[in-house]
UniProtKB/TrEMBL annotation:
Native species: Gomphosphaeria aponina SAG 52.96 = DSM 107014
Domain of life: Bacteria
Full protein name: DUF3727 domain-containing protein
Region (Disordered): 126-147
InterPro entries cross-referenced by the UniProt entry: DUF3727, UPF0473
Cross-referenced PANTHER family: OS04G0692200 PROTEIN, PTHR36061
Transmembrane domains' residue ranges: none
Amino acid sequence: MPESSFSDSYEEDDDLEKVTIFDDGGRSLDCYIENSLELNNATYLLLMPVDAPVVILAGEDDPDDEDEEYAQTILIEDKSEIEKIFADAKAVLAELNLTLKDTAYTLTVEGELPALEDENLISLELDEEESEESSNELESDNELEDDMEPEELQILKSFYHEEQRYSLCTPLSPLLFVALVNRDNQLELLAPDNPELQFILQELLFDEFDEN
């Protein structure tokens, strides 16, 4: 994924408080403006997708352990594999009245998510290398404390494609982006290696909590 992204323009709507960001492939992602910060004559925005993010897991059934759903679970990030199974994934989510979208930076689903139940909860542990490659997406302030903390996911639907089992999941922690309003009044996402990112994110989050 690219280290920065721009919107066509930035015009804050007091009623909707939404903006659209784009990746380098031209895909778009509608986001709510969760908070804003004026710092050093610059404006920063805390953004959260309007629709629920979706990740795809691939797993293998473990014939030796009936208590474990998978012997191994892999987060699918390869674009070609996602494209291969996208139609099937969209079809099974349609059974839940959810619309799967190929949006910028993350797949998303439009519609009302099913009720959260314990049997549909799983924890996904990412190793350090995977955490470092997770682009400029931020998963709440917990990531500031421990990048190795397991990610809690809600399983929406599972299906098979060419004898491979896949699960469509949505993270319980919010997916957040930090954007700078540049001189051209466009939004530029802060790269994960930006030295100011963590400080700005903390200020945005703490200020939001204070307002609530």
